[in-house]
């Protein structure tokens, strides 16, 4: 791995650009792994040393691709969205979607080279003799999405479909689907997707109207799926109501719907049209009409939604990772621009108000990075049998999805603004980042749905906030190099956030504050994580300064008629924008 000193690559780009009328460069050509000190440090905390050593060349290679070829391909794919063909030239209803060659090349990188879809499920990807740990998989998603967001939907939903089929499908169905889905041969493999939403039922899943009829032992589906991303996938997992089953979510069963029948004919469903979307333009989302399509029941008919929720939760985690990735791209773009663009005689990073804007971009990005790696680690431990980790995963997943996806929107807009007018022009990446950011608050549950899940179920029903408290307390106890008054503040804030969430869960009239309670839990969790991370051997101590900024600006009362600014922040900003690694003793005085 050729890791340059922190931001050296940026400095080179800045110097190159000097004198060229000061149009600031973008991150094209950078290695997104090499320039990401936070990621490199944290992976050494969350991966076993041997795994890190084996996987680091792949992080490095993907980092270079994400800043290079993938970035070029993503730009092209965004400009050449997929096109639906309803019929062939002989008038047969052979609907198919044409993709631009750039999208196809990205698929080869994702499914053929890196095998994202299979890396959690079998050995043999990226030189590993076993499936990758969750932190490694999500770190790779994080690097990929810094270049291309749209394709991560098909990648992730293939991965999560494989999970459901492995866990719940009958042995015959597994034997039929899994070898095809786990293949790395891009020309013949079967990719997955998930069709749940209907006109009447997005959040309100129980309103789903699609019916399933069993004829001579074969299930046939009839209905209209309104939002179908990766519309031409080879296998879709979907919910339908078997005839005679009860209303509401209790009556929904989970089915696997193949695009082709065993004899090669097209299954009886049609992609009616593609959506003309604000973002994720490289990837096809459509509407699908089920006209007696053959499908296979997955697991128990009565447990359809419970089973499907496993896929939803895996997707939610990935959405949090994707938001973290896009925010990182925003940070990188904003930093390279701020260091090289000159206004009023000096680089704009030297203007105090602009520095403040940069911190507003950087802090949520760092929070999301810590949160997704911690959540992935909980998943890894839960898969190994830890009940405490399973409980933590239960609450961390919607917390990450909810808050990181929301933060992504102002961060993307903020980074665009740092670039000034050029940021609004489609030749630069910002317009795409702004467009793509907005989908995160919609799919796999809106902000409200995720906040209610956190408060009503993860806190109220599962009591997961108390296992989270236990692990955060342990981390605070371990963070002894941090001054005690700062750790005490974090501890007191944690107590208040937990009590607040419990109140909202217990008192129905407080439902309107579910988002506030969820945000508080996210902010205090990420603050404690970043504080602890700052104390780990070899880690960069500036993470503790991010933690304090969260504490001051997200978890403390502010008077709108007083400056929201402490003198300590000037010194902190000086250190945070330096291009060197920061040691704990030099910032300890700023943590109180
Ligand atoms: C580009 C795109 C791709 C998509 N791809 C897929 C896909 O592949 N598969 C799939 O299944 N779905 C997909 N979706 C659908 C997406 O998951 C839904 O749009 C989303 O879940 C919201 O459902 P809805 O659109 O029916 O909105 P509604 O459920 O009608 O919600 C409308 C508003 O009401 C709020 N609301 C609803 N219930 C409550 C409540 N109890 N309390 C407070 N507020 C509430 C919501 O937060 C929202 O703001 C996609 C959507 C988009 C835009």
Net shape = globular
Could you spell the SSE succession in H and E letters?
HHHHEEHHHHEEEEEEEHEEHHHHHHHHHH
Strand order of the biggest β-sheet: 4-5-9-7-6
- Tally the helices: 19
Query: What is the oligomer described by this structure?
Result: single chain
C-alpha end-to-end distance: 37 Å
Largest beta-sheet characterization: 5 strands, mixed, barrel
**What proportion of the residues is helical, as a percent range?**
40-55%
Total beta strand runs: 11
Determine the mean pLDDT.
Answer: 95
**Strand portion, in percent?**
5-15%
Structural class: alpha+beta
Radius of gyration: 24 Å
The low-confidence parts are: 1-7
Bound molecules: flavin-adenine dinucleotide
Characterization of this structure:
Helix 1 crosses helix 9 (304-340) and helix 11 (387-418) crosses helix 16 (514-534). Strand 4 and strand 5 form a beta hairpin. The protein is built from 19 helices and 11 strands. Helices cover 53% and strands 11% of the residues. The chain has 592 residues and is of the alpha+beta class. The structure holds flavin-adenine dinucleotide (FAD). Flavin-adenine dinucleotide binds at residues 194-197, 202-204, 227-229, 277, 280, 285, 439, 442-443, 445-446, 448-449.
Give the topology:
Layout: H1 8-17, H2 37-46, H3 49-67, H4 69-79, E1 83-85, E2 96-98, H5 101-114, H6 134-145, H7 152-168, H8 171-181, E3 192-195, E4 211-215, E5 218-229, E6 235-242, E7 253-258, E8 269-274, E9 285-297, H9 304-340, E10 342-343, E11 346-347, H10 352-383, H11 387-418, H12 430-437, H13 447-461, H14 464-478, H15 484-506, H16 514-534, H17 542-554, H18 568-576, H19 584-587
Parallel strand pairs: 3-6, 4-6
Antiparallel strand pairs: 1-2, 4-5, 5-9, 6-7, 7-9, 8-9, 10-11
Helix pairs in contact: 1-9, 2-10, 3-4, 3-6, 4-5, 6-9, 6-10, 7-8, 7-9, 9-10, 9-11, 10-11, 10-16, 11-12, 11-13, 11-14, 11-16, 13-15, 13-16, 14-15, 14-16, 15-16, 16-17
């Amino acid at each position: 791995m050729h890791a340059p000193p922190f931001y050296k690559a940026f400095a080179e780009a800045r110097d190159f650009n000097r004198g060229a009328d000061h149009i600031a460069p973008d991150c094209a050509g950078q290695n997104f792994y090499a320039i990401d000190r936070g990621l490199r440090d944290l992976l050494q905390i969350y991966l076993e040393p041997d795994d890190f050593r084996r996987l680091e060349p792949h992080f490095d290679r993907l980092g270079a691709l994400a800043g290079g070829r993938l970035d070029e391909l993503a730009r092209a794919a965004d400009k050449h969205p997929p096109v639906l063909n309803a019929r062939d030239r002989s008038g047969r209803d052979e609907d198919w979607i044409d993709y631009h060659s750039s999208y196809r090349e990205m698929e080869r990188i994702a499914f053929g080279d890196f095998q994202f879809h299979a890396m959690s499920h079998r050995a043999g990807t990226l030189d590993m003799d076993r499936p990758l740990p969750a932190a490694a998989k999500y770190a790779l998603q994080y690097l990929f999405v810094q270049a291309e967001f749209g394709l991560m939907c098909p990648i992730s939903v293939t991965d999560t479909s494989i999970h459901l089929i492995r866990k719940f499908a009958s042995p015959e169905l597994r034997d039929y689907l899994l070898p095809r889905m786990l293949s790395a041969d891009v020309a013949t493999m079967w990719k997955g997707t998930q069709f749940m939403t209907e006109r009447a039922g997005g959040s309100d899943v129980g309103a789903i109207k699609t019916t399933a009829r069993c004829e001579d032992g074969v299930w046939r589906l009839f209905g209209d799926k309104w939002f179908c991303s990766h519309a031409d996938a080879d296998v879709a997992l979907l919910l339908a109501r078997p005839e005679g089953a009860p209303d509401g979510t209790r009556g929904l069963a989970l089915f696997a719907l193949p695009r082709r029948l065993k004899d090669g004919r097209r299954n009886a469903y049609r992609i009616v049209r593609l959506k003309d979307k604000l973002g994720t333009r490289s990837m096809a989302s459509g509407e699908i009409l089920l006209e007696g399509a053959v499908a296979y029941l997955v697991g128990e008919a009565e447990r359809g939604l419970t089973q499907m929720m496993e896929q939803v939760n895996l997707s939610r985690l990935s959405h949090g990772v994707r938001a973290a990735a896009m925010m990182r791209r925003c940070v990188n773009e904003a930093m390279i621009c701020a260091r090289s663009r000159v206004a009023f005689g000096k680089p704009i990073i030297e203007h105090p108000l602009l520095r403040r804007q940069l911190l507003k971009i950087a802090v949520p990005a760092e929070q999301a990075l810590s949160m997704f790696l911690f959540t992935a680690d909980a998943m890894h431990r839960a898969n190994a049998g830890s009940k405490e980790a399973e409980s933590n995963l239960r609450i961390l997943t919607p917390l990450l999805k909810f808050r990181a996806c929301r933060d992504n929107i102002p961060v993307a807009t903020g980074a665009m603004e740092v670039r000034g007018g050029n940021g609004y022009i489609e030749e630069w990446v910002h317009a795409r980042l702004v467009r793509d950011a907005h989908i995160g608050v919609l799919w796999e549950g809106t902000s409200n749905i995720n906040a209610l899940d956190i408060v009503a179920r993860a806190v109220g029903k599962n009591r997961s906030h108390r296992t989270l408290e236990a692990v955060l307390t342990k981390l605070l106890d371990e963070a002894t190099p941090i001054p005690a008054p700062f750790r005490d503040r974090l501890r007191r804030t944690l107590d208040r956030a937990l009590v607040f969430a419990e109140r909202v869960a217990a008192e129905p009239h407080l439902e309107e504050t579910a988002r506030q309670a969820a945000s508080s839990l996210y902010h205090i969790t990420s603050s404690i994580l970043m504080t602890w991370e700052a104390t780990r051997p070899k880690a960069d101590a500036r993470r503790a300064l991010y933690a304090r900024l969260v504490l001051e600006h997200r978890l403390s009362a502010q008077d709108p008629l007083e400056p929201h600014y402490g003198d300590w922040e000037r010194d902190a900003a000086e250190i945070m924008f330096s291009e060197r690694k920061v040691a704990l003793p030099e910032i300890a005085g700023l943590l109180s």
